[in-house]
Amino acid sequence: MDDFLYKDWYAVCLIEEIKKDKILLKHILNQEIILWKKNTKIMAWENLCIHRGSRLSLGSIKNGILKCAYHGWEYGESSQCTKIPSQPDIKIPKKACVKNYKVIEKFGLVWINLSTNPNEFIDIKEFNNKKYKYVASGPYFMNAAAPRIIENFLDVAHFPFVHENYLGIKNKAEINDYDVVTSKKGIDATNVRVFQPNPDGTNKPGEVIYDYHVHSPFFASFGKNISKKNRFVLVFYVTPISEFKSMIYSITLMNFGKLDKKTTREYQDFITAQDIPIVESQRPELLPMDLQSELSIRSDRISIAYRRYLKKLNISFGVS
Ligand code: FES
Ligand SMILES: [Fe+2]
What we know:
By secondary structure, this protein is α+β, with helices and mostly antiparallel strands. About 15% of the residues lie in helices and about 35% in strands.
């Protein structure tokens, strides 16, 4: 596993996916993770009982204690074993502790980090601006490699075709020469002009300017300035389940109007459902790092920058 990717933060669930006294099972980077909560505190552990290695996801939770289904060993929120029913009198060894992971909870999502030496958690600037309302959506599942999914997120040229009459119009499919800058912080593409059927919600077709950002290999966002003051932002997190299978969460942010949870989620569900068959169909499944192996044109410059960026970070997961 690439060191940089292993140390990154991954969106693992919506906060509301973790129900009281229920164990939530997730798969990240070929590992099984269980999530559960005590009051409002969220725990993320390896799905493995340290006694005989059975899956803790088969266990149960009562009064803030997680009990393994096999021999009933009990674990408290610190993941330390607190009770061994077959030998209640022995001193429980310190080693009797389930592997646990760091958790961050924010904007309706939960992120975890598998590493003991995590990369910095990246906040986008709109997160700290109180004028923005937000709604988290997902999970979406794709039988596709994470870099393929990010590249599709960065691609505006597919709007008129895959999202016809929603994000683009077929007879206005031309993409301008936008600007792309790669730095230590990732990639910024600005002045990306897209002709849309209804860019500001007034049903008047017109051009809208997007800015796209890659913050880390599987984490990107775009902003679209609907008017001088009104801005719409979509933040996009791809969490690899394995090299060929991924889970996606997004956060919609707006500094204007009403942001209804149900409508926002339904819209994101609808748009993502249009992307899924296309991205799942792409061959090779792993994103080619050899820039000659697919045919790139000027309007693909952000995807070229993305492939170069992955190469520079020495990413080998999800690419070929
Ligand atoms: S394997 Fe979990 S208690 Fe024995
Ligand atoms: Fe799309």
